[in-house]
Amino acid sequence: MIASAVMLLVCAAAGAFVLISVRGTAEKYKTEEVVSTAVRVSYLIKRERLPPVILDEDVSAVQVVNPTGQIVSTSYDLSGRPRMAAFRPSESSAQESKIICRSPAYPDQCVIVVALRVPQSDGQWLAYAAGPEVPWYVSRELLMALIGSSLLLIGLTAFGTYQTVGKALSPVEAIADKLAVITTTDLGQRVPVPKYRDEIRRLAETANQTLDRAELAVEQQRRFASDASHDLRSPLTAMRTEIEEALLHPEATDWLVTGEALLDSLDRLQALVTDLLQIARLDAGAAPKLEHVDLADLAARELNRRQRKVDVDRELEPGVVIIGDRLRLARLLNNLLDNAERHATSLITVRVRLDREWGALEVVDDGTGIPADQREVVFERFTRLDAARSKDAGGTGLGLSIARQIAESHRGTLTIEDSSVGARFVLRLPMAASA
Predict the structure, then answer these.
(1) What mean pLDDT comes out for the span 58-67?
(2) Where are the alpha helices (DSSP H) in 369-423?
(3) C-alpha distances in angstroms, 166 versus 158, 163, 172, 176, 363?
(4) CA neighbours within 13 Å on the CB side: how many for 138?
């Protein structure tokens, strides 16, 4: 519709230009024709062969006025009609033309009137000749031709634009139809990608990339829900088994031992629920409470309040200040320490140092270490390496994942780097501007 409206305006402008140009030419030609008629009449005046009524078919719409203002000769068509005009040519010109509407001789139309001065011995005679004014549309044939060609152009524009836009937008329709049938249970489908490298192709590629991410996220959520259900079921199953065995043989049950076993399962269940709640908060993007935190002071406080299971070597450089959430960073450090204690043989080393523009915190254990190809795997949720499952029975499989999320929420990194012995976890956080 917009293209048709634009073409309508273009055709209207072009038609108006054509009409104005042609009308100007036609009016000039018509005026010259009327002047020619007046000149022919002036020859008759000069030769004094002017009849009262001019019957010449080539001379029409003519009146001759003598010096006293009387009509002395007229064409047959104007016989008996009043004088068609009263204007005279100027002194500097022998002729003058005007368009007169509602002339006494032509009360119902506009005409081109030419006044020609003819000098005679008895004074100045005037020969008036008239012709119909050229209408604004020039002629019906020209007007119909312009209207017909304009309608044809508008129709072709509408049809061509409809076909072109329809063809151009057909990939969008295909993309919309495909997106309409894709659900969370069927994210394996992808929208069709057009063959032409244009904006619609980029839209389709972006939609497919979004679907890739959505499928990955949904798969991760499903796997997370499955793993969480499994890990929650394990302590509950153990507790149920303990209670059922105790109830089957109540007289032979050591209730103190049973209570301790139940407490162990409850501790594991509580740790798992706590980790799940922490992950939910991190996934929700809850804003951290930012403040200036001295990493050395934070590490010292956390180490002082923990019960030692292995020896801890401290190498804490003061003055390494970052901006972060003290509680979350403390959780991160404790997760690293819990992991290190489960895998250390006898010693854990905690370092705080300045690493160029970063504040670095390292937790190193003297255990068996982590193979290079498994260093990213351990940060996935519910991941525990097979070789360490026996020693890592107390872990939830979420601690390292939570630690990395906390680091990333502080615009930092948490990685496992090379060490001469055991595993070396390195946290890097941007230094505070005022530090």
Answers:
(1) 87
(2) 399-409
(3) 12, 5, 10, 14, 63
(4) 21
Please compute, for residue 416, the number of CA atoms within 13 A of its CA located in the half-sphere on the CB side. 22
CA–CA dist 2, 161 (Å, integer): 10
The SS3 of residue 368 is coil
pTM of the model: 0.50
| b (16+ CB within 10 A) / e for 290-303 | eeebbbbbbbbebb
- DSSP element (H, E) containing 149: helix 140-181
User: What is the reported pLDDT for 390?
Assistant: 47
Rounded to an integer, what distance in angstroms lies between the CA atom of residue 41 and that of residue 37? 6
Taking the chain, what is the end-to-end CA distance rounded to the nearest angstrom? 64
CA dist., res. 348 & res. 364, Å (int): 6
Question: What does residue 292 show for φ and ψ, rounded to 5 degrees?
Answer: -75, 125
Instruction: Provide, rounded to the nearest whole percent, the portion of the chain with pLDDT above 90.
Output: 39
Task: Evaluate whether 368 touches 391 at the Cβ level (below 8 Å).
Answer: no
Token match 């709640």: residue?
277
For 219-238, how does the pLDDT look when each residue is reduced to its tens digit (9 = 90+)? 777 777 776 676 677 778 88
Around Cβ 147, how many Cβ atoms within 10 Å?
A: 13
Closest CA relative to residue 83, chosen from 113, 124, 122: 113
CA-to-CA dists, residue 172 to 3, 40, 56, 347, 360, angstroms: 20, 75, 75, 62, 50
CA–CA dist 275, 402 (Å, integer): 8
Query: Taking 90 as the threshold, does the pLDDT of residue 91 lie above it?
Result: no
For residues 79-94, give the mean pLDDT. Answer: 89
For helices 326-343 and 295-305, angle between their N-to-C axes, nearest 10 degrees: 60
CA 354, 356, 359 angle in degrees (round to 5)? 40
Instruction: Let me know the angle formed at the C-alpha of 334 by 330 and 339, rounded to the nearest 5 degrees.
Output: 155
Question: Can you tell me whether residue 122 is helix, strand or coil?
Answer: coil
Residues present in the chain in total: 435
Q: In angstroms, how far apart are the furthest CA atoms of the chain?
A: 162
Residues β-bridged to residue 348 = 312, 365
Residue 119 pLDDT > 70: yes
